[in-house]
């Protein structure tokens, strides 16, 4: 059985250093195999420090508060890239220093959220959907109804991630996932406030999966890989894309402005793009790889998993989170939801 091991245990988080033999990574919890960190350290004679965040908004806030210049690479989601770039937080990439860029699958080259891959290189991709305990429910869920129906008596956790939570509420109400209509967003706010009052609370995806493992929750909104890592510990944990739809996302490596060690940042990004390392990463995190060359190095069990590699019908129900003009309204609504 694959054990869920925290990076806090496996990677020593020492004080961030500006020394040239230190590489500083800012990323999500449990999102890189500690063995990859160790291998990279040995290969490049470098000390890696890792700091973590639970949402793109948390990462943005920390950088805005004065952490810019402390990290080399931050791994953020597709919709956040134009936001970070517009605020001058990212450096344009020199593709000449990334020879393994040719390993990327064609659909991750020149993405709409970052034309020409000017600022970002795909790291992993996946979905945000509904995980559940098959032994604690009468039947497999097919709808967000188990979360958003005011009459639902289920025990569940909500993911502490603004855009997919608002987006899934919009989908349940029959609206566009990226709606910018004030009335529709207000309706989504009210739905979320009601759901919050009936829930076990908002948590990061990793913590939400733990509520399933302990049996405290019947349902949890989580990222694909966290659901599958939990399912590796308990076969009763399952994952579905509700009929109304769900979020599809691409997390990408970006080079921060004033990175203390840009040379090592390029070395790290190029290392992740190696075929064997890409396969090793997917085998640990349980997310599909954007690295086409990595496919042969991905465990056969993972390649055959329909939750990781979705059907065409399921893919048609997925929406990317897009950058929106009225982000301030989203922020206001999220603040109102969280403060109630």
Topology:
Layout: H1 7-10, E1 22-27, H2 34-44, E2 47-52, H3 56-67, E3 73-77, H4 80-86, E4 120-133, H5 145-148, E5 156-159, H6 162-172, H7 182-198, E6 202-203, H8 205-214, E7 219-223, H9 224-233, E8 237-240, E9 246-255, H10 262-272, H11 275-285, H12 300-303, H13 312-315, E10 318-320, H14 327-339
Parallel strand pairs: 1-2, 1-3, 5-6, 5-7, 9-10
Antiparallel strand pairs: 3-9, 4-7, 4-8, 4-9
Helix pairs in contact: 6-7, 7-14, 8-9
Molecular structure report:
With 340 residues, this protein is α/β, with parallel strands linked by helices. The chain folds into two domains: 7-125 and 249-303, D-Maltodextrin-Binding Protein, domain 2, CATH 3.40.190.10; 126-247 and 311-339, D-Maltodextrin-Binding Protein, domain 2. It has 14 helices and ten strands. Strands 1, 2, 3, 4, 5, 6, 7, 8, 9 and 10 form a ten-stranded mixed sheet that branches. Helix 6 (162-172) crosses helix 7, helix 7 runs parallel beside helix 14 and helix 8 (205-214) packs parallel to helix 9 (224-233). It is globular. The model is unreliable at 1-19 (pLDDT under 50).
